[in-house]
Amino acid sequence: MPEIRVETDSAHYSVHLGSGLLQPQAGASSLVGLPAKASRVIVVTSPEVERFWGESLRRALGNGIPVNLLHVPAGEQHKRLSTVERLCEELAALGADRDTLLIALGGGVIGDITGFVAAIYMRGIRFLQVPTTLLAQVDSSVGGKTGVNLAAGKNLVGSFHQPVAVIADLDTLRTLPVRELRAGLQESVKSAIIRDAALFDFMEANLDAVLAGDSAALERVVESSIRVKAAVVAADEREGGLRMILNFGHTVGHAIEAATEYKHLLHGEAIGWGMLAAIHLGESRGVLPAADANRMRELIRRTTDLPNFAATTERLVALTGSDKKKRSGTLSFILPIGIGQVEIVNDVTEAELSAAVAAMLAEVQAISRASGVEEPAHAG
Amino acid sequence: MPEIRVETDSAHYSVHLGSGLLQPQAGASSLVGLPAKASRVIVVTSPEVERFWGESLRRALGNGIPVNLLHVPAGEQHKRLSTVERLCEELAALGADRDTLLIALGGGVIGDITGFVAAIYMRGIRFLQVPTTLLAQVDSSVGGKTGVNLAAGKNLVGSFHQPVAVIADLDTLRTLPVRELRAGLQESVKSAIIRDAALFDFMEANLDAVLAGDSAALERVVESSIRVKAAVVAADEREGGLRMILNFGHTVGHAIEAATEYKHLLHGEAIGWGMLAAIHLGESRGVLPAADANRMRELIRRTTDLPNFAATTERLVALTGSDKKKRSGTLSFILPIGIGQVEIVNDVTEAELSAAVAAMLAEVQAISRASGVEEPAHAG
Ligand SMILES: NC(=O)c1ccc[n+]([C@@H]2O[C@H](COP(=O)([O-])OP(=O)(O)OC[C@H]3O[C@@H](n4cnc5c(N)ncnc54)[C@H](O)[C@@H]3O)[C@@H](O)[C@H]2O)c1
Ligand SMILES: NC(=O)c1ccc[n+]([C@@H]2O[C@H](COP(=O)([O-])OP(=O)(O)OC[C@H]3O[C@@H](n4cnc5c(N)ncnc54)[C@H](O)[C@@H]3O)[C@@H](O)[C@H]2O)c1
Ligand SMILES: [Zn+2]
Ligand SMILES: [Zn+2]
Fold first, then answer.
1. Quick check: is B161 catalytic?
2. Can you tell me which atom of ligand 1 is nearest the CA of A52?
3. How do residues B110-163 score in pLDDT, each as one tens digit?
4. Is B22 inside a domain boundary?
5. In this complex, do B89 and A150 lie within 8 Å of one another by their Cβ atoms?
């Protein structure tokens, strides 16, 4: 079973990856990765994830330790401070203290909320991530970014707070809707493009096996993706520099999500489109060879259906500028320069950005025409 | 002008202490302690503090930098996550980014809220403390504890987030109600008892001068108090051990505040009573010489009128047990063992605690009888 170490300035921990991790271990009374000194455990999950995996986790925890469950309804709209406050009040009512361990059982929404609750309850208690979506396993559960949304924008409040461990059980992905699985895989494509050419080659050769549920192939992809994230986060925990490369595809991707009000596309699908725009930009600047660009495009298109959506170039460019990643007026942009390699640039002009977004939107339109789908009325 | 260095694991900064710090400096365009690279400044304050000191701060900031003001009404009841969320939305609406500097202009309530907003907005931006109460100058502005209350209890959510600097202008204390000033001085008495015998001697000899507004005497007391806090926090930023000594008088003090619903006594007054209980405990254990105990009691009683209140021994003992400082069942207690010296013990029995609380309540009753004041109807 792969164990991937994450060594940041503030904490060192392991990601335990494999199958059957949520099965009661023969002879072992507790979950792999569970810290020895937890006085009690409180699990935060959503009702639908609990239905599939709650009982497995309970059994894996054994009965040597008191366990409570708190619920958050599924959906990004619950990732707000009001949910955080309600959970903190419930922790206090349960008598949770500094020795309590929180466990996040769910996707990125549950992980981000629970991690933030752990970051601020009594100024910080421990938490463990049990990610149950592909996106959460390869991305959100690793690296310690926690937080919630404001009305003004996504992830605008939060903390850096590392988990004590991450337990990524590939079995949990079996109950995940396939569209969610595919969307999460775009983060693996991202990892491959920014830093792991071998992973890229593997995905090119084995994507069909991964999508067909071949667990060895899936494990290979998830492990490599986590290793990319772990290495980047170890080098730059607080996104002072290198960590920005994880935003490849996200500058335009976030603009698409905002323009479509987070309703029409899954995050990974928006990132797929965002990567296509960034690839166009790299190619038209002459820093990315056409052959590499074509292979990237091909893999992105095979990984998910890229749903069409309605937005104008102007709107997307404007939303890109308001992205919180901007620092003092200059927009940092992650440009691909070859398979497994990106560079961070600060000199992307509005004209260049517009051209890249327009090229991407031309492809969106082509899909709409091909599928005969009408453009949604609420042009974003 | 004294400059006190605070050197913690996570940050190094200065407390600038003196008079006239909020006056526009001749020739200087900006406030002492203001970081050079702030792109904009957003001040958080309450309307009443703004009335006295808002214009001074604005002028001291000069006009080389954009300044906005956000308001929080005075009062502990506003120290909640709903205020934090509202302020974060207002920051976003103003376009605040990672280079924005927040300034907390006010007492401990404003400082704790603003510090917490700075801790979580975009996962952490810089903030500067401009404490305008004695309590905030000698205690809450230094050390990086930030946070807000839950319905379930005080300061139950928060972060450790150090300010970039603290600017403690003694002039601001001139507009502070004298009862607030005296209550804040109990924290200086606390600092003297736990770690600074020379400060204790000075306060004994010069308390009348301090209360009469002698600025040299006041500066001496504030400076020494801040040095105690800075030294303790430098040794133990996250309250793993030594920092607990700052809770001297607070274990019972917090219980009194809870029993009286935070309405009847100021924090420093409750701490005064709490210190009296702890002194009784130290004396009856035989670890604190009677002569020292008597000098401590005398100074505490001279520093504030200790208002009477209604609570039973049972209730206070029960509330003491539920204090969040407890860890896994054992109650840490800070016992005075001599002037300038305390020890942290974990073996205080309920009988000992009850006896100490009862002795303190006997004094409360004596005051009530002497002043002819009826006990409040809402016996806590
Ligand atoms: N912290 C980070 O570094 C980071 C990085 C990337 C994304 N994120 C955040 O992650 C969130 C998205 O996470 P997500 O894509 O996992 O979405 P999600 O958490 O909303 O989960 C998607 C859906 O799948 C359901 N689900 C989860 N596990 C399941 C399972 N095993 N079987 C069946 N259904 C299951 C959920 O209930 C939900 O309806 C966003 O809020 C995003 O901001 C955070
Ligand atoms: N973070 C920490 O380490 C720490 C330590 C101790 C206390 N605290 C917190 O501090 C808070 C108490 O702080 P406080 O005692 O300063 O109370 P406060 O902030 O409520 O201020 C007391 C009153 O004085 C007013 N005021 C403030 N400055 C003034 C001035 N210069 N002139 C006239 N009026 C003025 C305020 O508007 C308020 O009405 C509590 O919430 C407590 O939990 C925090
Ligand atoms: Zn992403
Ligand atoms: Zn105090």
1. no
2. 32
3. 999 999 999 999 999 999 999 999 999 999 999 999 999 999 999 999 999 999
4. yes
5. yes
